[in-house]
Amino acid sequence: MRNPFAWFRERRSVESGPYSYVDAGNWWSGTRDGPESINVIRAENLATVQACVGVISSTIASLPARIYQVANGVRTEVEDNPFSNLIANPYAVQTWSDWCEFIMGNAILHGNALAQVVSDGTGVIRELRVLPWQYVTPLRLLRDPAEGRLIFNVKLPNVPMYQVLDSEVFFLRDRSDDGLIGRSRISRSPGAVRNAESLQNFSLASWDNQAKPSAFVTPGKSTSRDGFKRFKAQFDEKNTGTKNAGRVIYGDDGATYTAMQMSPEDAQVLESRRFGVEEICRLFTVPPPLVQDYTRNTFSNAATAGLWFAQFTLLPWVRKIEAEFKRSVFGLNGGYELELDMSGLTRGDYAARWASYMVARQQKILTTDEVRAQEGYGPMPTTIGHNGGPPLDPEQPGDLT
Description:
The chain is an alpha+beta fold. Helices cover 42% and strands 15% of the residues. It folds into three domains: 1-207 and 271-346, no CATH class; 213-259, no CATH class; 349-400, no CATH class. It has 13 helices and twelve strands. The strands form four sheets. A four-stranded antiparallel β-sheet has the order 1-6-7-8, with no helix packed on it. A three-stranded antiparallel β-sheet has the order 3-2-12. The longest helix has 32 residues, at 299-330. The chain is extended, with a radius of gyration of 30 Å. The relative contact order is 0.12.
């Protein structure tokens, strides 16, 4: 719950000035056209960029969200809390998964993601209203530059422009150069994306304009003018364009057959496009097998790709989301914490998982019911034993065997 009076005093202080505003550097978010930049729409036209953004955002959106209450250094999960409805349905038209995907997509592509924390008159937070970054202009308040305060001008389609304070928003950002506004990875390394885009456009143009048959039949010297016309008409009609790729061209009498092979230039383009996939995967820190690139795939690296992805790609974003939730939604002294449970991604394969459970049971770290809950089962029945024997004791390690 937010203090509505504190919020009111803060907004009146901002509105009464004497603040002045300066552009906080939104130009580098990757949304501007220019010789040294590439916009988000062009970037997402590349399948690898779309796949990287999709696998990160959808995986984080699928993580269970749990709320803990912290008291005297002890964290306790609380299902009945003031924020339960907010987590289940953060925005009127979005579920939690939809909201997370939107926030992560904006943060990855633009470097920043914004959601307005909307409270009622009593200070109870009712929703986290998403604000697409392309409709937001961040400004810095210069009454005291050391404060580093931000205010955001929001101009949604068919809606009058309005302003929100940095204390009224959930603000997730990628690495920043000035400590205020995040910078997208696309804008940091536009060359890698532009190179992949150029190769893709070159390949499309080559296929659209190609006239490369699988074989060529050369007419003999006795070919007449009419025969040449027929030959040219046949070539234009049946051997140009993508739908006719690979056909054999036939001439008149006295023809000779010549097979066509892939040129070294074509092979180099294909190899360069594969390298472009790897470059974009490096840019977003995504293992290539997760975006369907199995060029150098082996059984061992495929088996560990998910664990690597969870530790080095998802975990930094998850920690940022949890910390920003604590700042903007719960308040720094609210006593609540959000946790996005990554245990399902990091607990290993089936056999290793059950072996670790056995150790945890033997060391009395987990009970049988806690193990079953993690695997999606209900509590162990305790009224009767196996084959009508004595009741089962959920605290005995042997119950798992």
